[in-house]
Design a protein that fits this description.
InterPro entries: ModA, ModA/WtpA. This protein has 265 residues and is α/β, with parallel strands linked by helices. Helix content is 37%, strand content 20%. The protein is built from 9 helices and 10 strands. A 5-stranded mixed sheet has the order 2-1-3-10-4. Strands 7-6-8-5-9 form a 5-stranded mixed sheet. Helix 3 (81-89) runs parallel beside helix 4. The longest helix has 18 residues, at 13-30. It is elongated and about 60 Å long. The relative contact order is 0.18. Mean pLDDT is 84; it is low at 1-38.
């Protein structure tokens, strides 16, 4: 992108003053700072792709970010981490990526050269419908033939973590369905389509119509959540992307995550 033209030597003083004011406004907008009174700053959007398990906390952090950056809108998109990584690698426009495990983020970091930082941890638990009609007491009950179990697919972080716990405990799970994210697992449990599901503790804490049963061996699979700003058109992350990442890593952002049940990095 070319820079602003220099004024000709013969330009009037008023034109030079207007150019200086315009450049100042653009600089403030690029830095994501609050515009000065009377300055016209074009609305800006920072697009954030985040794991489905971050829906509530990132929505709250985004609201706080917008309040601190007038004229800036945070566009959030939530899905399974592997889906988000594929979207980024295929060129989807995005400024920030936050996934639910390091392996998924590594695919992006290795190919486009980002520098992810861990901002939270999470563990799994068992979700059952209210009243626990199938009488689920722990991981061993999930192997019963009469139990309709739903888990995340193995290619997404919650599914990979589920398999890691099962391997650690020496059990074989035979789910009736494998979902692309934890939200869909919870939906099937809450609606009674499943007798049990394996989800993150943070997802269960915000869900209605479900109860928690402790998952034996959950400590065998502690998920690390990394976040990174993504290169823009000039090959560098925007200042707003970096600012949003710092908002998540800040004390205020960490407090939002802690209230939702996430562990510290």
């Amino acid at each position: 992108m070319t820079g602003p033209r220099r004024p000709r030597a013969a330009a009037s003083a008023s034109l030079m003053l207007l150019a200086a004011l315009s450049l100042s406004a653009c600089t403030a907008a690029d830095a994501g700072t609050e515009p000065t009174s009377g300055a016209a700053v074009a609305p800006q959007t920072v697009t954030v792709l985040a794991a489905a398990s971050l829906t509530d906390v990132f929505t709250e952090i985004a609201d706080d970010f917008e309040a601190a950056h007038p004229g800036v809108k945070v566009s959030l998109s939530f899905a399974g981490s592997s889906t988000l990584a594929e979207q980024v690698l295929e060129g989807a426009p995005a400024d920030v990526l936050a996934t639910a495990n390091g392996a998924t983020m590594a695919q992006v970091a290795d190919q486009i050269g980002t520098d992810p930082q861990i901002f939270a941890t999470n563990t799994l638990t068992i979700a059952v419908p209210s009243g626990d009609p199938a009488g689920i007491g722990g991981l061993a009950d999930l192997t019963r033939d009469d139990v309709r179990l739903v888990v995340c697919a193995p290619q997404v972080p919650c599914g990979a973590a589920t398999q890691k716990v099962a391997d650690a405990e020496g059990v074989t799970l035979s789910p009736v369905s494998e979902e692309s994210n934890v939200t869909d697992v919870l939906g099937k449990v809450a609606s009674g389509e499943a007798d049990a599901g394996i989800v993150y503790v943070t997802d269960l804490a915000r869900a209605d119509g479900v109860e928690q049963v402790a998952l034996d061996g959950a400590d065998a699979a502690v998920n690390l959540y990394p976040i990174t700003s993504l290169p823009g058109g000039d090959g560098r992350p925007t200042s707003l992307a970096d600012a949003f990442v710092q908002a998540v890593l800040s004390d205020a952002g960490q407090a939002v995550l802690a209230r939702a049940g996430f562990g510290a990095p």
